[in-house]
Amino acid sequence: MVPAAAAHDGATHGERLMLVMHDVCVDMGRLRLGPIHLRLAAGERVAILGPSGAGKSTLLRLMARELRPSRGEVLLDRRPLAHWSASDLARRRAVLPQQHGVAFGLPVELVVALGRVARQSDGRQDCIVQEALAQAQAEHLQGRRFDTLSGGEQARVQLARVLAQVWDERDGLLLVDEPLAAMDPGLTLSLMQSMRRFAAARGHALVAVLHDLNLAMNHFDRLWMVKDGQLIADCDAVPATVPLLEQLYGTRLRLLQDQHGMAVLPVMGREVPLTGTHAQAQEPLQQTLHAMEARR
Ligand SMILES: Nc1ncnc2c1ncn2[C@@H]1O[C@H](COP(=O)(O)OP(=O)(O)OP(=O)(O)O)[C@@H](O)[C@H]1O
Q1: Which CATH class is domain 4-237?
Q2: Average pLDDT, stretch 164-191?
Q3: Which of 30, 40, 233, 265 could form a disulfide with 19 if both were Cys (CB 3.0 to 4.6 A apart)?
Q4: 286 burial via Cβ count (<10 Å: 0-12, 13-18, 19+)
Q5: What's the CA-to-centroid distance between 280 and ligand 1, angstroms?
Q6: Which residue minimizes the CA distance to atom 16 of ligand 1?
Q7: What pLDDT is recorded for position 15?
Q8: pLDDT band at residue 2, thresholds of 50, 70 and 90?
C-alpha cells in the first residue's frame, strides 16, 4: 500500500522528537509486524487504528518495551529503549494495557498507588492517588475492593493508576490500549477530555489504540493505521482521511460534520474493494494523500 511517510513524516515541524521506531519487526505467532518506521513528538496525540488482529496492541507493546523487537530499534529521547533502567522508564512512560489482569482483592487506593512504585520516597503519594482518582472520575470508589468493581469502574481505577504514574513528570508518554472501551458515552467523552487536559498540562504525548473512530477523529492529531502487521498510513486526523479509513476497514463510511466536530458512521452492506486487489481503489487513496501533501 502507500508508504506511511508519504502522508506524514512525524515530528518534522520543529517539535521535540520523543520516540522513534526504526525498521522495527517482531513475529507474533502467524503475524509478522513490521518493518515499522515511526516518529512521535512530545505532546502529540496519536490514535492507532486498524481491524481486529491487525497488530495495534503489539505496536503499542513495542513502544512500551513490553515486547522486544526481533529487528530494528525503538528510541525514547534518543536513547534505545533497551538501555533504559526499569525505574527510569517507569517514571517516564505509563502503559494501560487492554487487559490489566489485576484480579486480586486489593483496595482501589492501592491499585492506583502501584503506579508510583518506581518512586522511592514519595511524600505526595496519597495526595496524587486522590487527585488521579478524581481525574479518572473514580473518587467515589475509594475504600472498595478492586475485584468487586464493574468493568467500567475497574477501567477508571486503572486509568487513575497510569495518571498517577506520570503525574509529576514533564514530557512523558502515555500509552493506552482501548482505555474507554468499557465506558458509557457521557463518561467516554468526559474521560477523553480529562486525558487530553492531563497530557497537555504536562507536555505528555498520548498514544491510544482505539476502535472508536469518532474519538480518534475528534480528539487526536494523528492516525497510525495498521493492517496485517503493516503501518499502511501515518496521517493527520482530518476529514480527508475517510477514504483511507474505508480502505483500512474495507467498509464504506459516511462523514457527518458540524461546528461540534465529526462523526464517522459505517454504512451497512456497501463494502469497499481493498487496495492492492482492485486498482481503482488506489485512486481515492492517492488523491487523499496528494491533497495532504499539498496542504503541507
Ligand atoms: N503472545 C502471542 N502469541 C502468539 N500470537 C500473538 C500473541 N500476541 C498477539 N498475537 C497475535 O498477533 C496478532 C496481532 O495481535 P494484536 O493484539 O496486536 O492485535 P490488535 O490489532 O490489537 O487486535 P484487537 O483489535 O482485536 O485487540 C493477532 O493475530 C494475535 O493473535
Answers
A1: alpha beta
A2: 95
A3: 40
A4: middle
A5: 31
A6: 55
A7: 76
A8: very low
Predicted pLDDT at 270? 58
Instruction: Locate CATH 3.40.50.300 in the chain.
Output: 4-237
Which residue has the least CA distance to atom 24 on ligand 1?
Answer: 52
- Pocket residues for ligand 1 (CB within 6 Å)? 28-29, 31, 50, 52-58
In this structure, which long-range contacts are made by residues 77-86, counting pairs with CB atoms below 8 Å and at least 24 apart in sequence?
77/18, 78/17, 78/20, 86/118
CB 271 within 8 A of CB 233: no
Per-residue CA distances from 221 to 41, 237, 261, 282 (Å) = 11, 6, 13, 24
For a substitution probing ligand 1, which of 31, 32, 228 has the most ligand atoms within 8 Å of its CB?
A: 31
| Whole-angstrom distance, CA of residue 75 vs CA of residue 82 | 9
Residue 39 pLDDT class (50, 70, 90 cuts): very high
If you measure from the C-alpha of residue 131 to the centroid of ligand 1, how many angstroms do you get, rounded to a whole number?
34
Whether this model's ipTM surpasses 0.95 comes out as: yes
Q: What is the DSSP string of 188-228?
A: HHHHHHHHHHHHHHHT-EEEEE-S-HHHHHHH-SEEEEEET
Other C-beta atoms within 10 Å of 276: how many?
Answer: 11
Q: Is 123 exposed, middle or buried (0-12, 13-18, 19+ CB in 10 A)?
A: exposed
Residue 56 Cα to ligand 1 middle (Å) = 8
Q: pLDDT tens digits, residue range 144-156?
A: 999 999 999 999 9
* pLDDT-based confidence at residue 130 (cuts at 50, 70, 90): very high
Sheet of strand 31-41: strand arrangement? 31-41, 17-28, 71-76, 79-80
Q: State the average pLDDT over residues 79-84.
A: 96
Ligand 1 midpoint to CA 34 (Å): 14
Global pTM reads 0.89
Centre of ligand 1 to C-alpha 290, Å, is: 32
Ligand 1 closest atom vs CA 98 = 27
